[in-house]
Amino acid sequence: MAAETARADRQRLALTQFATAEALAHGFDLCRITTPERIPDLRPVLQAFVGEGYHGSMAWMEETLERRGHPTGLWPEVRSLVMVAMNYGPDEDPRTLREEPGRGAISVYARHRDYHDVMKGKLKALATRFAARAGSDVKVFVDTAPVMEKPLAAAAGLGWQGKHTNLVSRSHGSWLFLGSMFTTAELIPDAGEVDHCGSCRACLDACPTNAFPAPYRIDARRCISYLTIENKGPIPADLRPLIGNRIYGCDDCLAACPWNKFAQSAAEIRLKARADLKAPELADLLALDDAAFRAHFSASPIKRIGRDRFLRNVLTAAGNSGDGDLAGHCRPHLSDTSPLVRGAAAWAMARLLDAGAFAALAKQMTADEQDEMVLTEWRDALASQGES
Q1: Which domain holds residue 84?
Q2: Residue 121 lies in a domain
Q3: Helix ranges restricted to H, 212-251
Q4: Whole-angstrom Cα distance, residue 118 to residue 136?
Q5: If both were cysteines, with which of 126, 223, 249, 308 could 338 make a disulfide (CB 3.0 to 4.6 Å apart)?
Q6: pLDDT by residue (tens digit) across 234-266?
Q7: Nearest-CA neighbor of 304 among 378, 374, 229, 371?
Q8: How many domains does the chain have?
Q9: pLDDT tens per residue across span 124-150
Q10: How far, in Å, CA of 240 to CA of 160, rounded?
Q11: Which residues have a Cβ under 8 Å from the Cβ of 42 and sit 6 or more positions away?
Q12: Neighbour count for residue 198 (Cβ, 10 Å)
């Protein structure tokens, strides 16, 4: 019996070392392992989050709550979880772009090729090698299934969930893509990571829209990433001015994290950002029709939100720019086929024109407007100008 136990332990160790070595060989920067019994039941946390309405319009969070609450809810046979991470840190502080209101600020992660594709390809290659060696079943996930990557990564020791609710690593700061390989193989788990945030609240104070009701809690309805990506309707009027020139996501809470000083240098980062997405001109983006949008963002996660939502974001940034010259670029969108775009264009024009010019424009454009949402935008914009 002792000999069999020793042999089983050697096999577990060999498979564990193989999984880690293969993960690094396939281009991941970090790899740690955990097991289902080391992961608490997260359903109460999720239920409280959904109960507060913090998930906004993301109905899938409520629909998948039971499966998302624990790895065995998704796959009862799982015995080990191989958690991997890839660094995507920027070569400069993305917040400096706030000083260039005529340019659009795109979240750092979206300046690369879609990370889902990059990570999924590498994970599939890792899983193929591991399954052949272990003779066990495997499943891979990259933010496309009801998997709570951040708590699982913390349990595996990749980092800890910071007060901004994102994963923080002592070696990579807040700039990590996460993925996982579930397997029926028995592996040796790593020690989990502890919270190293201490009394720091830099990430909380950095949020432009005050999206954190408390440390470690986020209200997605106020988060710029949610508002510009997940949100399918108009951005709430009171939050639009706070968005500034952020046209896809927001990095402020991540960029404020002091642990970023330990992140790898840009020269060591495996993923390189597209130069044309670092600081695009709003005027150029406003000129994109549907075909041009699809072509320009063909390999980018930005493509997934569609041209209408993207233009809504760009028009919001244009309205915040204070640059009257952008009014000419916004004007054509007052006749767009999408009510979402027309409404955003009306708001932007109200911010870029003087009261008299805007009142004349409103009279002209509302004469034939049939959509109530767009008409409401015009009425609210006229009222706000009358108050200013």
Answers
A1: 2-89+113-183
A2: yes
A3: 224-225, 240-243
A4: 24
A5: 308
A6: 999 999 999 999 999 999 999 999 999 887 654
A7: 229
A8: 1
A9: 999 999 999 999 999 999 987 788 999
A10: 32
A11: 68, 69, 70, 148, 151
A12: 8
